[in-house]
Amino acid sequence: MKCYSEKASILSILFMGLGQLYNRQFGKGILFAAVEILFIVYMLPFVS
């Protein structure tokens, strides 16, 4: 499995889980993305 760590790192900085999805680690990527989405949804009432 090829791993492009520089590109994966940049994707993970933009949105948690994208780097894992890019590296075909689908389980981890979906889990991390779901956690970030839930955190954003949870924090929205506190921001507005």
Write up this protein.
Keywords: Membrane, Transmembrane, Transmembrane helix. The chain crosses the membrane at residues 29-47. The structure is a single chain. By secondary structure, the chain is an all-alpha fold. It has one domain (5-47). It is built from 3 helices and no strands. It has helices spanning 5-14, 18-22, 26-47. The mean pLDDT is 91.
In N-to-C order, the SSE pattern is HHH
Strand content: under 5%
Helix content: over 70%
| Major sheet | none
Alpha-carbon Rg, integer: 12 Å
Poorly predicted ranges (pLDDT <50, ≥5 residues)?
A: none
List keywords for this structure.
48 residues, mainly alpha, 3 helices, 0% strand, transmembrane helix, Arabinogalactan oligomer / maltooligosaccharide transport system permease protein, transmembrane, membrane
Quick summary of this structure?
It comes from Candidatus Hakubella thermalkaliphila. With 48 residues, this protein is mainly α. The protein contains 3 helices and no strands.
